[in-house]
Write a structure and sequence with these properties.
Layout (H helix, E strand, L loop, with lengths): L18 E2 L13 H8 L5 E2 L5 E2 L28 E9 L14 E6 L12 E4 L2 E9 L4 E6 L1 H6 L10 E6 L18 E11 L2 E7 L2 H4 L7 E4 L2 E4 L2 E3 L4 E6 L1 H6 L10 E6 L1 H21 L1
Antiparallel strand pairs: 1-3, 2-7, 4-5, 4-9, 5-8, 6-7, 6-9, 7-8, 10-11, 10-16, 11-15, 12-13, 12-16, 14-15
Length: 294
Amino acid sequence: MAPPPATAAAAAAVRPHLLLRRGGGVLPSPQSGPATRAAAAGPARRLRLPPPRFSLSPVPKSLSSASPSSHIPVRSLFTGIVEEIGRVRRLGPPLAPPSGGGEAPGLDLEVETKTLLAGTQLGDSVAVDGTCLTVAAIDPAASTFTFGVAPETLRRTSLGERAAGDGVNLERALTPSSRMGGHFVQGHVDGTGEIAALRPDGDSLWVTVRAPPEILRLLVPKGFVAVDGTSLTVVSVDDEGGWFDFMLVRYTQDNIVLPKKKVGDKVNLEADILGKYVEKLLAGRVEAAAKADS
């Protein structure tokens, strides 16, 4: 397949992961549904956690140089099967800044949902365009979630480019009874890519994405990749050209945000964690062999 036409801007460089720590506070009972919580809070009251604290400790860009202490714990897991396209209500400074100062609060991302409010509680993890965020506030009357977004998250993902009215892919974290329809997605975005080409093929759509080498080296044909949190099968990878592509069938096009984007738009990318483990294991073997030969 011929490489896609060049675009005006190169894909953003890969940066370290972000760990979001859940804030403290009293959570509603797991048995209580949204109607019960709404009745207890009153129609105008918003349920809200204290602003979450964020770990900004960088993860080494090279997995081969990562030490055991840099291991990222898996707190939530997703499948990459988008449950709903939510609608951004607001992205801006928190309406109620934390008292006593402290760390920079980042921004609040308020998202309207039609179906995901039921069964979701404060402190739950939701993948928003593939970025694992913690539900910090719930407004049953407005049918919205609010997430705290740290400055580091804005630098590492495309969430900072969202505006009121934009659609975002939403998926709640796996439960023990969930069907595994996609692949293991952590919601730890590896970096951003850039849409290089959109080409219809019957009722399907070919999408070509430019990506940095740190991500491309973890992608293989027929392997998995999460693009804006959507589990997709890679068709081709061109390391020299700096791109990979995949195809969206009609159903997928109708249920995710990606087809509404245009050439040049950023997308969040997360490579399959299996490739990361293999890379680290092989790097360790190579390093051990080099020491043995010296």
